[in-house]
Amino acid sequence: MSIFALGIELDGEGTHSAAWRRAAHAPSESLSGRVLGRRVAAAENAGFTFATFDDSIVAPAGDVSARVDAVNRASFVAATTSTIGLVPVVGTTYAEPFHTASQLATLDYASRGRGGWIPVRVDDAAAARAWGRPLVESAVDLDREQADTITVVRQLWDSWEDDAVVRDVATGRFLDRDKLHYVDFEGESFSVKGPAIVPRPPQGQLVVFGTEDDRDQVDVVLESNESTHRGDGLTFLELDVTLDASGVTASERTELLNSQGSAPTSGRREYVGDAAGLVNLLTDIATRYDGVRLFPTVVDEDLPALARYVLPPLLKSGVAHRPVPGSTLRANLGLTRPANRYERV
């Protein structure tokens, strides 16, 4: 299946440190469920394939210095949405993989198979202190923790076969113990025996997003800068977006925001301009990539512009397609449901 997926980052007020000044709500509402639900619903109604939620145990930089756990945010909107994929960031360096696997499997159940996750290395002394864990500094150790965590989480999701739950009330038999499996993982910094405490997720495996460094372990590679060398599998380009909005040009909006706070330095490709130009750019990107993840400068200004002027022509032309109601995130990305590694054939 040929796809061009449209993703959007919905953490905070936007990528700019002064984005909160342009929000369509009072500052006290920044972390409210009402605001979160409204934004995710707007992204879903627009036709986005998935939404992502950044995260860290350490407060974000900028004027808004707080956030709610990303998995909790994704789970909160799971019951009020029906088609959009929900993809939280999860740190792998200090969090317990067993708990991560349980939380994400629960997200997949709550969303009826629309869960994903972005595992990230956490190179931050403040995060180590917050977790009460020894600091992990070297690139080798950070890479090992990342790889081990992804491995364990995937194994735990498979530790229940799909038909392990019997629910035979007459006999009082609710589980087939022969279809639960120990993962027996032994690593340098942790070990996990298993099985999981949550049955296998609806998707079998939630969609794993990551960088080129993790290509062998992820379903989707997120690329910050365009590359001429691509490997197998899905690759999405990440793009910072500032659009003309409310009668103000994108350049004028950028200048005003920069006068009120520090400009972001993400390292991602940036688009500043009108909606028609972005439609042309995304149409071109679709010839080389399987999808994009857009980072709005100000969510409450750029998301409405995207919904009204950018996604409709992309959907009408067939460059992109709305997620299919009742389908999983894997299906909407053209990914098959994986077989269980422990199931006896």
What is the fold's blueprint, element by element?
Blueprint: E1 5-9, H1 33-46, E2 50-53, H2 70-78, E3 85-91, H3 97-110, E4 116-120, H4 125-131, H5 139-157, E5 165-168, E6 173-175, E7 185-186, E8 191-192, E9 207-210, E10 220-223, E11 234-243, H6 250-260, E12 269-273, H7 275-285, E13 291-296, H8 299-317, H9 329-332
Parallel strand pairs: 1-2, 1-13, 2-3, 3-4, 4-9, 9-10, 10-11, 11-12, 11-13
Antiparallel strand pairs: 5-6, 7-8
Helix pairs in contact: 1-8, 2-3, 3-5, 7-8
Overall description:
This protein has 345 residues and is of the alpha/beta class. It has one domain (5-125, 204-332): TIM Barrel (Alpha-Beta Barrel). It is built from nine helices and 13 strands. It has an eight-stranded parallel barrel with strand order 1-2-3-4-9-10-11-13, surrounded by six helices. The chain has a two-stranded antiparallel ribbon with strand order 5-6. The chain has a two-stranded antiparallel ribbon with strand order 7-8. Helix 3 links the parallel strand 3 (85-91) and strand 4 (116-120). The two termini are 27 Å apart.
- Give the integer mean of the pLDDT values: 94
Q: Report the end-to-end length measured between terminal Cα atoms.
A: 27 Å
Helix content: 25-40%
The whole-angstrom Rg is 21 Å
Strand share of the residues? Answer: 15-25%
Question: What ranges have pLDDT less than 50 throughout 5 or more consecutive residues?
Answer: none
The number of domains is: 1
CATH architecture: Alpha-Beta Barrel
Q: Compute the number of strand runs.
A: 13
**N-to-C series of helices and strands:** EHEHEHEHHEEEEEEEHEHEHH
Provide the CATH topology: TIM Barrel
Q: Give the count of helical stretches.
A: 9
CATH class annotation: Alpha Beta
Shape: globular
Strand order of the biggest β-sheet: 1-2-3-4-9-10-11-13
